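hey so i finally got around to running both of the ones u sent me last week. sorry it took forever, my laptop kept dying halfway thru and i had to restart like 3 times lol. anyway pasting them below in the order u listed, first the sequence line then the structure token line for each. didnt double check formatting much so if smth looks off just lmk and ill redo it

first one:
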Amino acid sequence: MLPDLVPFDELSDTSIIPQSVEDNQGHETCSCVLLLLTPMNDDDVYEVQRLYPQIYIACHTDHVRAVSTKWRISSQDAAILVHLDRESGLRPRELAKHLGISSSTLSAYIARLSELGYLTSDPNKDDGRKREIRLTERGAEALSGTSVLDATRVKAVLKQLKPNDRKDALRGLKLLADAAKKISE
């Protein structure tokens, strides 16, 4: 099965669409169509700069200190948890590099957050010498409970959308978040 779209060049808005076609003898072959996508422009950047703060301001809550919540996590703890996923593991060294902190500093955070039950640190399935950290269900609850975005306000915003529009909006946010991760790697 052929992929839907193949980037031609990471730095351009050009892609290749593989197509399966039959030759004159009935054999399946592959031909490619070059697709010039609409180039990104400054208006796209402006829209992100304009729209993101509107969402942030509408849903923002006051920051709370670690000792004043039942979750007992600081903003630094939350910055670590927000990068973790419940399904796919992340190597501590990669996270430390991404956050711009030393591995030993991250190790102390991991030990504390693991003790609180917010993350797990397990051997990699393919290479037991390497570790992977994952968010736990309790960690997801702590993250939600201490987020700078108020869950009640976010829910109210999402309720304003029709189910299909809500899925599109969440998909768009995921695409932006994934792209943001790629440029910071």
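and the second one:
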Amino acid sequence: MKRHLGPHLCPRTKLSQITLQYLWGIKKQILFFFNRLKSEHLPQFSWSSYANILAPFDTQTFKDPDKWTEFLTLKYKSKRPPHMFYVTQGILSPHWIEVLAGQTVNATLKTWISQTASRRLVDWLQTRKAGSNGINIVIADYIEEYNFVPTVLSLNGSGRPFFRMCIYFILLTLYVLV
């Protein structure tokens, strides 16, 4: 890892110190997380994902679009610990009936599930702010639709001055055919 990505890896520091301005200043682009409980025995360029990333998920809630947006709102309002990245999961989970029905009518999970999630996520994000008590990381399927990218990028100007603001988002475009 270090041999291939070394010059781009941000050294481990306090997560509250990581901003876009900080990364640009040290000329680094990659934050690397390991699935380990503690950071003590990790290389200096990595963090523990368990200790530094909070990603709430509820398999039952994430099957119902209304319950899912209520869940996102509840978690957004409850504020995350200041020393952690917080993942807003803009992904619904298909119910087994939807998977079966999709195969029957030759539909895809994109048309049955992901488009609903993408549309609702964009609407939900438009009323939020970024920053230490707001949106930090957003993951979603099919980000090319429903104005997702401009909506997430517009969060960079919300909450705090742009160059001190830190928002990270993971753009996951998963084309899953069932």
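quick thing i noticed on the 2nd:
The chain has a mean pLDDT of 76.
anyway thats it, ttyl
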